Amino acid sequence: MNQARRYTYLTLYGLLLMSCSETSLTSKGMIDYVQSKDNGLAKEVNVDGWAYKIQYKPAEYILAIEQLQEPDAINKRTKQLENAAWFNVEVSREDKGIAPLRYNITSIEEYNSRYDYMLNYAAGDFTLIYNHSDTFKPISYHFETTYNLSPTETMIIGFSLPKNIRAANNDMQVVFRDRVFSGSIIKTIFEESDLSKIPKLINQ
Amino acid sequence: MKVKYILVCIAISALVSAATYYIVGQQDQKGIAVIDAVKLFNSYNLKVELENEAKVKLSFYGKKIDSLTTLLQAADSKNIQDEKLISRYQNVKRALDREYEQSNQAINETVWIRLNPLIDEFGQKKGLHLIIGANGMGSVLYQDNVYDITQEVIEYINNRYESGT
User: Fold this and answer.
1) Closest residue, chain B, to A47 (C-alpha)
2) A14 occurs within a structural domain
3) pTM for the complete prediction?
4) ipTM associated with this complex
5) Chain A 3-22, residues with CB within 8 Å of chain B CB atoms
6) DSSP B134
């Protein structure tokens, strides 16, 4: 009898492990998964010494970072994040030698003009093309200034998705017309095949 | 006699095939390719998009010049020499020329900064030793399709641009 019970427990434990290993991750595992370059959710485009790191932030990743504990708070936050796609866009010199806003400036006016662009105008230069057809402009934009303490400038951008799409499940192309650093157009695609593999977050 | 004749024919065709195979093989080993640089530049999506963007600004000046021209013609038909209008026309024309030149230069620089590393990367991936850029100015006087990889490179650069990989 004891033997039978032991086998049952072992089988159940094995099933639990298998279900968790493939599609569910802890907060730490989720953060590592999303930030890894191998999973297609963190992209980098390099142009003329500039590095643009574009990080897609699925709702599970944001919840993992925010470490919410209360089920009500988790539900509320999940609802807020639905029907939108969130990204962090980091700009830096490839050698991380100097803060981008200070790179090769010749006057304080030039610095202020770059700063002003990042604060007030860069949002207008972002576009999301969903499923190769629908074009969206940002619904939310925030420039995270570090006052040149870090060699990276970060922009947090949110786009709404087509109606009834709770989380992105088709190809998404992010387009940034950079008018300040490289003066080029930066594009990257987050593929449906990678988006469909995003694991679930285990509520701890 | 007939058998001997057939054998000689077979031997000759085998020799010719071997020689052709050797020559073509030698050419492949040299790893030389030709790209139509003008076609490549004009087909790069980044160039097309930057140019479309510049056109909006240039058309603004174009419309201004059109309306000033109409005013000048009207004045001319009444034999009026409006110096202020002429000076305004010349200023806008100069601004248009300056804008055109600056945007052209900026587009050229931005596009070649992106294109050059991609062409290097393509050459390395394909194991090429030399890529010649034909630009219609006489650097390449003749090429046959064997060496022309323009279309393949256009697809490569646009795919890299659009996917950001």
Assistant:
1) B114
2) no
3) 0.81
4) 0.82
5) none
6) E
